[in-house]
Design goal:
2 domains; alpha/beta; 317 residues; 20% strand; 13 helices; D-Maltodextrin-Binding Protein, domain 2; 11-stranded mixed beta sheet; 38% helix
C-alpha cells in the first residue's frame, strides 16, 4: 500500500537547482517538480541559473537538495578537480538518483576540404606539427570538456594544438558557428540533441563532414567519464551520409545523500509513473528509461534509496 504523503520525516521543501531560465535543465525541471508536488505533496522550488558544473557545488554545500548535471562530471568530481569546479567538492554528499533523463550527442564537424576524417587523423596532424583550428562553446561547457578529454586520450593538450600552429576558439556556439562559416576554423564542436540548431544551420548552408570518434577512444571515454557509445544517425543532417560514431552524454538527477531513502525511492516511483506527462511538457524526456537509468549516471554514486528502487523493480541485480 502507498503511504500518505508527505511522510513526517521528509523535509518540508526541496530546492531543485537547474540551468539558465528557459534552457533545457530548467524546462525539464519544471514539469518534474510539478509531478513531485502533486504526487508527493512536497514543496519544490525550481532554482534557475547555476548549470551543470555549478549545480553539484550547491548539493555539496547543502544549498540545494536536488539538481541536474551531466554523467561525465562525476569523473572530475570524484577526483575533486578544482580546475573544473572552481572549489573543492564534498563528493560523498552528492548522489545520483537517475540518469538518461535525456541524451546529449557530441558533434565534431569539419570543413569539407579538411584532410582528416576522424580523431585518429586529427591527432596525427597535431603530432606532425600541422595546424588544426577548433572552435565551439566556451570553456567549462560539456562539449569543450569533451574536446579536452578526446585530445587527452591521444596525450595531447591545447598547448600542443597551439604549438602546431592551431587554435582553440572557445567563444560560444553562435560566434564559433559564424567563424566556421567564414572558414576561420577547421573543426566546430557542439553538444545537444538531434536536430541541433547550430549544426543544422551550418549543415544547411555549406558542404561539411562529420568527424567520427574511433571505438578505442569511445571505450576509453566510457571507462574514464562514463559516457556511452552512440551514433548520429545517417540522414539526420544533409551531410550525415552514414552513421557517425560519437559519445552520448546523459543528463542526470542528483540529490543530497542526506535526503531520506524513501523520499528518493518515491521520486523514482513517480518519475516512472508520470513519464508521459513529463515528456508531453519536455519532449526529450521520452528518452528516459527507468530500467536502465541506473546505468547512465557516469561515475556518480547512486543514492541508497535509488539502489533499493532499482533492485525492487528487478532492474539492478
Amino acid at each position: 500500500p502507498t503511504p500518505t504523503f508527505p511522510l513526517p520525516h521528509w523535509p518540508q521543501k526541496l530546492r531543485f537547482i537547474t540551468g539558465v531560465f528557459g534552457g533545457a535543465f530548467y524546462s525539464l525541471a519544471v514539469p518534474m517538480a510539478d509531478v513531485f508536488k502533486r504526487e508527493l505533496k512536497i514543496d519544490v522550488e525550481v532554482i534557475p541559473g547555476p548549470g551543470a558544473v555549478a549545480a553539484p557545488l550547491y548539493i555539496s554545500k547543502g544549498e540545494g537538495e536536488l539538481a541536474m548535471t551531466y554523467d561525465y562530471l562525476g569523473a572530475p568530481a570524484k577526483e575533486n578537480d578544482v580546475s573544473i569546479f572552481g572549489e573543492p567538492l564534498n563528493f560523498s554528499r552528492i548522489t545520483a538518483v537517475a540518469g538518461g533523463l535525456y541524451v546529449t550527442y557530441y558533434y565534431f564537424v569539419a570543413q569539407k576540404e579538411f584532410p582528416a576524417n576522424n580523431f585518429d587523423d586529427i591527432a596525427k596532424m597535431i603530432k606532425e606539427g600541422k595546424p588544426v583550428r577548433f572552435g565551439g562553446d566556451a570553456p567549462g561547457s560539456s562539449e569543450e570538456m569533451m574536446l579536452r578529454y578526446v585530445l587527452k586520450y591521444y596525450g595531447l593538450t591545447y598547448d600542443d594544438v597551439r604549438k602546431a600552429g592551431g587554435t582553440v576558439y572557445a567563444v560560444g556556439d553562435d560566434p564559433a558557428a559564424q567563424a566556421f562559416r567564414e572558414k576561420k576554423i577547421d573543426v566546430f564542436y557542439q553538444a545537444g540533441g538531434i536536430p541541433l540548431r547550430t549544426i543544422a544551420e551550418v549543415d544547411a548552408t555549406m558542404e561539411l563532414k562529420f568527424i567520427a570518434i574511433p571505438d578505442t577512444v569511445l571505450e576509453w571515454l566510457n571507462k574514464n567519464l562514463g559516457v556511452i557509445r552512440g551514433a548520429i544517425p545517417k540522414g539526420s543532417y544533409k551531410n550525415a551520409v552514414s552513421d557517425i560514431p560519437t559519445a552520448l552524454g546523459s543528463t542526470i538527477l542528483i540529490a543530497s545523500r542526506e535526503l531520506p531513502d524513501d523520499l528518493i525511492y518515491y521520486i523514482l516511483e513517480v518519475l516512472a509513473k508520470n513519464k508521459d506527462i513529463i515528456a508531453a511538457a519536455y519532449k526529450a524526456f521520452s528518452y528516459y528509461d527507468p530500467a536502465t537509468a541506473w546505468q547512465k549516471v557516469g561515475l556518480w554514486e547512486l543514492h541508497p534509496g535509488a539502489i533499493k528502487w532499482f533492485k525492487d523493480h528487478g532492474y539492478m541485480k
